[in-house]
Structure formats: structure tokens, C-alpha cells
Amino acid sequence: VNHLPLLWPERAVEAIEGTLAGAVSITLRDDVMDAFEHVVKKALGVLWQLPGCIDDLELQHAFAEACALVQSRSHGGAADDASEALLLPVVDLLNGAIEGRHNVDCMAALDDGEVVARVIATSELQDGDELLLSY
Fold it and tell me: Which residues contact 95 (CB under 8 A, 6 or more apart)?
């Protein structure tokens, strides 16, 4: 999971500072650390400080890893509004392809409060074909 932008080393983020990718990466890191400080640590209370528990940096890294995994597997939602993003089991197993080289599309919608997801072939598929989704 260390290839995910949220978990990049500081020097990698500094190398793209001043770019859109750098700004998004820094904002995402700040949001995750803010959630860690104001939600996770408060929810755990003093439990995480008890002897034998993981230290603050390990807990922070574990939380960042969990956030990165969810972010990397979510579908839909605007980049600045994760509240609309969905986790779709099985769909997250599709591999990514650049636009024009994909062979499936994914559509997700709410239907009477239920999430309905459809994976639709955009070209003829043969048994054993890899399913490629364009993000």
C-alpha cells in the first residue's frame, strides 16, 4: 500500500510541491491527520496510551493505511467530497486502464436506499479476458 499517495514519504510529496498532485496529496494528508487527532484519538480516549499498546506513530500510520486502502478502492464521489464515494465489493478487483483501453464501465446508483452497481462490457469479451476499468 505504500505506493498510494497518502503513504508516500515526505521527500516524495516535497518533490511535487507546487503541482496539483502535490496540493491534493498535502490536503489529503492534512485531512487524515486531522481526523486522527480529532476523531480516532478522542474515540479511543486513554486506551491507546495504556502500557503494551502501539505507540502514537504506529497508530497514526495504521489509520493512514486504512484510509489509503478505502480511498484507493472507492468509486464515485467528487475529489473534494468523499461522502458520495462508495465501496463496491468485487468491483474493486477490476484492474485499471487508461481511457480508451478499458473494456468495462461501472455504474453505481441508489435504488430505494440500496446501492446497485453494474459492470457493463464496452467491447466483446472472451472467457479469461482481464476486466479493465477506466477511472
Answer: 130, 131, 132, 133
Mean pLDDT of 50-75: 81
Question: How many helices (H) does the chain have, and how many strands (E)?
Answer: 4, 6
Helix/strand/coil (H, E, C) string of 59-101? HHHHHHHHHHHHHHHEECCECCEHHHCEECCCHHHCEECCCCC
Q: Shortest CA distance to 36 belongs to which of 57, 5, 8, 51?
A: 57
Residue 98 pLDDT > 90: no
Which cell is 53 given? 499498546
Q: Helix 20-35 vs helix 56-73: angle between axes, to the nearest 10 degrees?
A: 120
- pLDDT, residue 76, reads 67
